[in-house]
Amino acid sequence: MKKSIYSNNYIYLIYRLNSERKRLKISQISLATSLGKPQSFISKIETRERKLDIIEFIEISLAMGINPKEIFNDVVDKYIKEKGGN
Hints:
The protein is an all-alpha fold.
């Protein structure tokens, strides 16, 4: 089993967050500022230099005005489909 940070599903999660940020026209700087973090915090997550934990995922989603359940459910559905589930 490869590290989750290199898995297709983790890459997809980060892609979804990044896509939503860009769709909403939120800069890395403004998102990081709203979280009380430096811009590099967002950059390192988006380039997968830093692993995102579940609480950070929720905080980032909410800071962008997104319901984290929507992205999470999408990622879970994709994961189940890839594993041959329902």
